[in-house]
Amino acid sequence: MAQSAARVQNRKLRIVAPARLVDELDEDVVVVMFSQVDFRTGRLVELRPVAEQAHAVGALVLCDLSHSAGVMPLALGDDGIDLAVGCGYKFLNGGRGAPAFMYVANRLLHSIENPIWGWLGHAETFAFEAEYRPDSSIARFLVGCPPILSLVALEEGIDLLLEADLHAVRRKSIALTSSFIDLLRQEWDDDAPEILSPLDGRRRGSQVALRHPSASRIVRALSENGVIAEFRAPDIIRFGFAPLYVCYADIWDSSQILKRVTHQVDADRRAARLRRKFE
């Protein structure tokens, strides 16, 4: 999407490493786009420093909250975030096909125009006027009718989160991911998968990412043993921990199953190498 927008606007898309995001800011930058939690490693980016530096050079900030909404407190206004987007199927528990969401700071609401005008974004939907008048609220960015069944599922997930203290949810998130990392470091020998996520829980989202050359096979084996993890090419295994319903017993069980299936995959790989050697 960023590439397409840059092409249409005759702009240049500059891709930088997350760790160098602030260092790369200069007066040529129009919009800074980044994920608060990196989907590969789970590294957490502090929002306010990025926003302050971006505004200092005259740029807007567009933040992806897909891996942070629902597992930590967010204060987009206080942190100076201009725009944000995210998905509803991850920690908001909307399930597959859940609608996405967007955020526009109040100070920008009337200066940013939706390039695709839709019926539901009209100021008076049922007036059926010949000319389009955008709604004065965030509703101006609605384009078409939302999928009702998906909205119902997402609403239930959000209602549960509204009953929770997100500060407590964040504390449990850090505890869950830290416990998982501690088990990997304490119980494994040198053949343990590489831990890609930050070891400092304050710099980590609600996930733990591991690197292993047989990541795809391990994820399939985990699924066959009742543990749902995700494979990200070429060699990343990603575990997401939803604090509302993942418990510490789940951490112990999944770590033990991971250890067992990884050792089996490694043994099969070594056996295959030996067979090829003597063929």
Structure notes:
By secondary structure, this protein is of the alpha/beta class. The chain folds into 2 domains: 2-99 and 146-162, Type I PLP-dependent aspartate aminotransferase-like (Major domain) (Aspartate Aminotransferase, domain 2), CATH 3.40.640; 166-278, Aspartate Aminotransferase, domain 1. It has helices at 2-8, 47-56, 76-79, 148-162, 166-187, 215-224, 248-278; strands at residues 31-35, 60-64, 83-87, 100-104, 194-195, 207-211, 230-232, 236-240. The strands form 2 sheets. It has a 4-stranded mixed beta sheet, with helices on one face. The protein has a 4-stranded antiparallel beta sheet with strand order 5-6-8-7. β7 (230-232) and β8 form a beta hairpin. α5 runs parallel beside α7. The longest helix is centred in the last third of the chain and has 31 residues, at 248-278. The chain is globular and about 75 Å long. The termini are far apart. The mean pLDDT is 93.
Helices and strands, with pairings:
Elements: H1 2-8, E1 31-35, H2 47-56, E2 60-64, H3 76-79, E3 83-87, E4 100-104, H4 148-162, H5 166-187, E5 194-195, E6 207-211, H6 215-224, E7 230-232, E8 236-240, H7 248-278
Parallel strand pairs: 1-2, 2-3
Antiparallel strand pairs: 3-4, 5-6, 6-8, 7-8
Summarize the structure.
The protein has 279 residues and is an alpha/beta fold. It has helices spanning 2-8, 47-56, 76-79, 148-162, 166-187, 215-224, 248-278, and strands at residues 31-35, 60-64, 83-87, 100-104, 194-195, 207-211, 230-232, 236-240. It has two domains: 2-99 and 146-162, Type I PLP-dependent aspartate aminotransferase-like (Major domain) (Aspartate Aminotransferase, domain 2, 3-Layer(aba) Sandwich); 166-278, Aspartate Aminotransferase, domain 1.
